[in-house]
Write a structure and sequence with these properties.
- By secondary structure, the protein is mostly helical.
- Helix content is 59%, strand content 0%.
- Helix 4 packs antiparallel against helix 5, helix 6 runs parallel beside helix 8 and helix 8 packs antiparallel against helix 9.
- The chain starts with a helix and ends in a 20-residue tail after the last helix.
Length: 231
């Protein structure tokens, strides 16, 4: 362990402290920043609202990123990087979102650790009604081929758009699901059908195909090896 890392540890600069310091930037905005007027299509990151990055914010970001890089290079641990990624990815500040992208670019192995973290973010965004966060999650999944999250993120996005009466946005989400062959959840399909009914729009037959899309065929098991007998 280098003298630099030892001094940080002695000073009590744990990963949790640095991540909490970086996340304090949430308090610099009044409101969640989850809605930005108009809803672009799925997988498209909405244009960020310009927010000034204060000197205190830049200082905290520099300290947090510096600590994460030291731990990753000298201890081989990406746990602090994962915590910092979560704090910055979910922030409404565009500057913090750029930090989360930079972490993934510098540490590609971080993508393998996202797993349950991304699913938790989908549930959080759906609970908070944060459309922008769901769109960023879909964009992240598309960029890094995280197809396991397509269904949950797309279905949650569609349900929120239907709850807000955003027919145009919901139709774009349906087109995205058709193009990517995403099997939407039944609650999401029912809400979209209800939205079409309120607008007196007919339900397309392709929507039923999304609802009743057959599960992927299982790969056949390889035959067991032939036993070898010795006489």
């Amino acid at each position: 362990m280098s003298d630099r890392l030892k001094s940080q540890v002695k000073a009590g600069c744990s990963a949790r402290v640095w991540v909490s310091a970086a996340a304090v930037c949430w308090g610099e905005l009044h409101g969640s920043g989850g809605h930005s007027g108009g809803h672009p299509g799925p997988g498209t990151v909405p244009p960020p609202t310009p927010v000034p990055c204060t000197p205190r914010t830049r200082l905290l970001l520099g300290q947090a990123v510096d600590f994460v890089e030291v731990v990753a290079s000298e201890l081989g641990s990406l746990v602090p990087a994962l915590s910092l990624w979560s704090a910055t990815f979910t922030s409404p500040l565009f500057r913090l979102q750029q930090v989360s992208e930079g972490l993934v670019e510098r540490h590609p192995c971080l993508v393998k650790l996202l797993g349950r973290r991304v699913e938790g973010l989908v549930e959080r965004a759906a609970w908070e009604g944060n459309l922008c966060l769901l769109q960023r999650i879909l964009h992240l999944s598309l960029c890094h081929n995280l197809s396991v999250h397509y269904q949950s993120a797309t279905s949650a996005l569609l349900q929120l758009q239907c709850d807000e009466g955003d027919l145009r946005g919901a139709e774009e989400t349906i087109k995205f699901a058709q193009k990517m062959e995403v099997r939407l959840t039944p609650p999401a399909v029912r809400r979209f059908l209800a939205l079409l009914s309120r607008h007196r729009r007919p339900a397309p037959l392709t929507l039923l195909a999304l609802k009743y899309h057959p599960p992927p065929a299982r790969q056949p098991l390889p035959p067991p090896p032939t036993p070898k007998y010795r006489f």
